[in-house]
TrEMBL record:
It comes from Capitella teleta. It holds the Pfam family Arm. Residues 308-437 are annotated as: Disordered. This is Armadillo repeat-containing protein 4. SMART domains: ARM. Residues 337-363, 372-382 have a biased composition (Basic and acidic residues).
């Protein structure tokens, strides 16, 4: 275990003399689960070794109490000890109080297993705490006694200890192997990509400096052997993400030794510089390489309709892997035009010389910073001369301010789940010289002049006077900016006078609520200075700096800047205070709590970036947020819960929220009277309830009742959207559906189907779809008047809403009375029309909904034929590339084919060869419905023989190896129908169908038994007929 914990496990950074913590990642969860399984089954598998006494006790802080330890334990003073003791009289288990938390000591595997059993659903937390406080458990268990063993030690004792060490070593090796597999499945940069890039650059390497971009590039010896996974790095370095080692010789410098890892390329021994692409790294370090690569004729022509120029890579000298646009760089440099393409491009350029459309380099080489002077000239003409500033704002590649703002706009919806593009292309408004301006504008400009020219006392007075103005007004904010006040305020942050710093930060905090101001602060380097202040011993300064960062970090570039300058780690450190849950707090405690609150606010803003979420996790933010979540103060809870719900889009955070006991606190805060806090708690539950364990905990802690209560908050749409989303996800568990039924949630949800925004409707309909899976709830939907509203929503255009509403209609159609109403409202026609939707999820959901409609409607065959072109549309969707669409269409075909006339029509449309073409799939869901469709289609004409000619029979036999009983059932039915053709019987027998069918005959499923036996009977009849014919 020691090697695995050291090499394969992910740890947070150690700080202030304390060791790091295990991160909440899927890899760590897998390791912890394996260790729990190993310990829990140890005494049964190894009865002798489990009694070995540890050299040192494993000690860790625990959530267990004396009440959790029953049978074989007694109380001695303030300690709870085991009745069993070592030969030296030391108890095998000791539970004692250590401050506000209990501490436990264990001396053997047998009792360690007992402690895990006593932990119940807290096994993961106990194992995590044990390993964090005992990072090398083998050393404590066995020590170095094998090196210093006394001669009088018993031989049997030696053997038992040796066997224990070997068992742990063997288990450690297995953990290492599984960790390597897990790391290999999560790589970002892959060995084939590295090989292709090196091979590509090798083709452009040589001694001729005019033709070749490098003198040489090769694999670094002795690491040239290629392992099975494609890596050249040794296995112990693969655990750290290394793929291979490269040596490159540029024309203008020394040989470079480069490591290719799963996160990118970096120089051996260098820290902090990781590049997503090898070409970018070489460009940064070799000017000659950059010059030569620019000369390569690797462009293609593209005609653009707009006036946008060449988009080039960032001109910053330092690029690291955390850039938000690294994916574009990764895609842009991975492939290069071949020699044939060059000739075609040259000819194309000659043909297009007379055209007015502009020529643009290939997107693949945009990041190489190659652009022509004419583009620069045209773009620079757009940029107006900026006012005097502390730092130059214009980019060196000549991009206009408008372009820069566009590239640094707010994160998209996919990255930020709660904030839209707040600052996309905001206009840069300046006050007109002759416009009527309020007196405050001119007064503030005078104060800024005093700030520029006054001494220390005048500066402080000017700052105080400026604070007397209403800085929330846009006029006052722009007045400070227009006269150059921002540069002065940011410069004051570099002074040694604390009062000047505090005054400046107070003003910046107020005016940074303005979109233009916060962008200007970022452009002037204010964020870098504020990040440095986060380490200042003055708590007021740290609080103000964090609050200002929280305001400024509303757009992507600002969040990236905070991360680049180690701001995430410093902000996480601000959370490390002891919140006072109750009682009177001292002044210092008040300041500590205020510092933590401001840090949570800043992290909340920064957490809208995926890479910032990862940086927060690595810095150890999760346990600190869990601790702050127990606070009773709403001003602390709102940013903490806001940060958690923003981060809950990541699986590692959802795991942490569940295992760290945060679900209980979220449920408790759902009952708060603060609607903003309720909204964030409901949103966090909404995102975390994807996992079954979380849904169970929400019900266990009584979270379903307050969620239903929040449905009455019809005036607060954000709260309503969060509450309905949480109910939707919690309804996935059948146990929760029972409770929602008792709370009459169906009636309340149906009442929200009208006059609500789409974000609410998506969640409401999703919840109704999940609740309708319970047959008892389907009549309630009709009784509450929900069926007409659901059918009406089928005419919408929102894809997420269409997916959910089709599911809800499909579930409702399982009830015959509901189906009558759906048919009368023309709901089946609307569902059929959704098959034409361009979105695969909508197509699949509509097809699934059609299945119960066709099964439960009267005269279903006639109804299906009444849709002009409907059957042809169904068959054509068998050409889809989406597996979910294919499975749903096969299920629909199985229902349609029950009618003989419809079966004849779809046969004429070529359904047989299309179904046969899909039989090579390995997806069990598709296999099940495909086999069912084949079984139904065998009942017309010579379709059985056609399936045999299309070679579908042998592929169907392979389905019997699946572990899904439903696949067996539908496959046996299909084989039974196909076996009525003699040629198919021969094919089945050759494919070895008899043996698995004999096993299925013994199944408890009567339908499966009958189909398997029927198939065997047909094969046997053919064999008997053949024998009789031969005689």
């Amino acid at each position: 275990m020691g090697q695995t914990l050291t090499s394969a496990a992910h740890w947070t950074s150690a700080k202030e003399g304390r060791g790091g913590k295990l991160e909440f990642t899927q890899a760590n969860e897998a390791i912890l689960n394996k260790i729990i399984q190993f310990v829990e089954g140890f005494s049964g598998a190894h009865p002798e070794e489990c009694n070995v006494i540890f050299q040192q006790a494993l000690t860790w802080p625990t959530c267990l109490t004396p009440a959790d330890l029953s049978g074989g334990y007694s109380q001695k003073g303030s300690e709870t000890v085991s009745d069993a003791v070592t030969p030296n009289g030391v108890p095998f288990v000791t539970l004692k109080s250590a401050g506000k938390q209990n501490e436990i000591c264990v001396m053997s595997f047998e009792h360690l297993e007992g402690i895990l059993r006593a932990s119940g659903d807290k096994k993961m937390s106990e194992t995590r705490a044990c390993l964090e406080h005992n990072p090398d458990p083998v050393a404590k268990m066995c020590g170095d006694r094998f090196a210093t063993e006394r001669e009088d030690t018993e031989i049997e004792d030696k053997k038992r200890n040796l066997r224990l060490v070997l068992l742990i070593k063997d288990f450690d090796d297995k953990l290492i192997s599984e960790a390597i597999k897990h790391i290999s499945s999560e790589v970002k940069l892959t060995p084939p990509e590295v090989d292709r890039m090196v091979k590509l650059l090798r083709d452009y390497s040589g001694d001729d400096e005019e033709k070749h971009v490098l003198e040489d590039i090769s694999w670094m010896p002795p690491y040239t052997y290629v392992f099975e996974n494609g890596c050249r790095a040794p296995p112990y370095r693969q655990l750290h993400g290394d793929i291979s080692y490269i040596q490159a010789q540029p024309h203008d410098g020394d040989k470079m030794c480069i490591t290719a890892s799963t996160t990118g390329y970096f120089f051996n021994g260098a820290e902090g510089e990781t590049y997503k692409d090898l070409v970018i790294l070489l460009r940064e370090k070799s000017p000659r390489f950059a010059e030569l690569i620019d000369k390569q004729d690797l462009f293609k022509v593209r005609h653009t309709e707009d006036d946008n120029g060449l988009v080039v890579g960032s001109s910053h000298g330092h690029r690291d892997i955390d850039d938000e646009d690294d994916e574009r760089q990764d895609n842009g440099n991975r492939a290069v035009q071949k020699a044939e393409d060059k000739k075609k491009v040259a000819e194309k350029k000659k043909q297009d010389q007379g055209r007015s459309k502009r020529l643009e380099p290939s997107f693949k080489w945009r990041v190489l910073n190659v652009h022509d002077a004419q583009d620069n000239k045209q773009e620079k003409q757009v940029v107006k001369a900026p006012p005097k500033k502390r730092k130059e704002i214009l980019y060196s590649d000549g991009r206009s301010v408008k372009k820069a703002q566009h590239s640094d706009g707010e994160d998209s919806f996919e990255e930020s789940t709660s904030e839209s593009e707040e600052e996309e292309e905001s206009p840069d408004r300046r006050q007109e010289a002759n416009s009527d301006l309020p007196s405050e504008y001119w007064q503030i400009q005078k104060l800024v002049k005093y700030l520029k020219g006054g001494n220390q006392t005048a500066t402080i007075i000017a700052l105080c006077a400026m604070m007397d103005f209403n800085l929330t007004q846009e006029t006052c904010q722009l007045a400070i900016r227009d006269v150059g006040g921002l540069e002065v305020l940011i410069n004051l942050l570099d002074t040694d006078d604390i009062k000047c710093k505090i005054g400046s930060l107070k003003i910046l905090k107020e005016i940074s609520c303005n979109t233009q101001i916060r962008r200007a602060i970022a452009d002037l380097g204010g964020l870098e200075t504020m990040v440095k202040i986060l380490r200042d011993p003055n708590k007021t300064l740290k609080t103000l700096a964090a609050e200002t960062i929280a305001n400024v970090a509303k757009f992507r570039r600002a969040r990236r800047t905070v991360r680049r300058y180690q701001g995430i780690r410093k902000l996480v450190a601000l959370l490390d205070c002891i919140p006072v849950v109750s009682g009177v707090r001292t002044t210092e405690q008040e300041k500590d709590v205020e510092v933590a609150r401001s840090g949570a606010l800043a992290l909340w803003s920064c957490s809208k970036s995926t890479k910032n979420k990862q940086a927060m996790r690595r810095a150890g933010a999760i346990p600190l947020l869990a601790k702050l979540l127990k606070s009773t103060h709403e001003n602390m809870l709102i940013p903490v819960v806001g940060t958690l719900q923003e981060c809950a889009t990541e699986p590692s955070y959802r795991l942490a929220i569940r295992t760290e006991g945060m679900i209980e606190d979220l449920v408790k805060n759902l009952k708060s009277e603060n609607q903003e806090l309720q909204m964030h708690c409901a949103s966090a539950i909404f995102k975390c309830a994807e996992e079954q364990e979380t849904r169970h905990l929400v019900r266990q802690y009584g979270g379903l009742d307050p969620l239903v209560t929040l449905l009455s908050q019809n005036d607060n749409k954000e709260l309503l959207a969060a509450a309905t989303g949480a109910i939707w996800k919690c309804s996935i568990s059948p146990e929760n559906v029972v409770r929602f039924q008792q709370l009459k949630a169906i009636e309340l949800l149906v009442g929200l189907l009208n006059k609500q925004p789409e974000e609410v409707l998506v969640n409401v309909v999703g919840a109704i779809a999940e609740l309708a899976k319970e047959p008892a709830n389907r009549p309630l939907i009709k009784k509450a008047g929900g069926v007409p509203s659901l059918v009406q929503l089928l005419t919408g255009t929102n894809r997420a809403l269409l997916v959910n509403v089709t599911k809800a209609v499909g579930q409702s159609a399982e009830d015959p009375d509901n189906m009558v109403m759906i048919d009368r409202l023309d709901g089946v026609r609307l569902l059929w029309s959704l098959l034409k939707n361009q979105n695969a999820s909508v197509q699949a959901s509509a097809a699934w909904a059609l299945c119960p409609c066709i099964q439960n409607v009267k005269d279903s065959g006639e109804m299906v034929r009444s849709f002009v072109g409907g059957l042809e549309l169904i068959v054509s969707l068998l050409k889809s590339d989406d597996r979910e669409v294919l499975a749903s269409i096969c299920a629909a075909i199985a229902s349609i084919a029950k009618d003989e006339e419809n079966l004849a029509v779809i046969t004429d449309h070529g359904v047989v060869p299309m179904l046969a073409h899909l039989t090579d799939t390995t997806d069990d869901q598709l296999r099940r419905h495909l086999a069912e469709a084949i079984a139904r289609c065998c009942n017309w004409g010579d379709n059985r023989e056609s399936f045999g000619r299309e070679q579908a029979v042998a592929s169907l036999v392979k389905y019997l190896k699946s572990e899904d009983i439903s696949v067996h059932r539908s496959t046996a039915r299909a084989l039974h129908e196909l076996s009525k053709d003699p040629d198919n019987c021969i094919t089945m027998h050759e494919a070895g169908v008899v043996k698995p069918l004999l096993v299925l005959v013994g199944s408890h499923d009567e339908e499966l038994q009958e189909a398997a036996a029927g198939c065997i009977a047909n094969i046997r009849r053919l064999a008997l007929a053949n024998e009789k014919a031969q005689k």
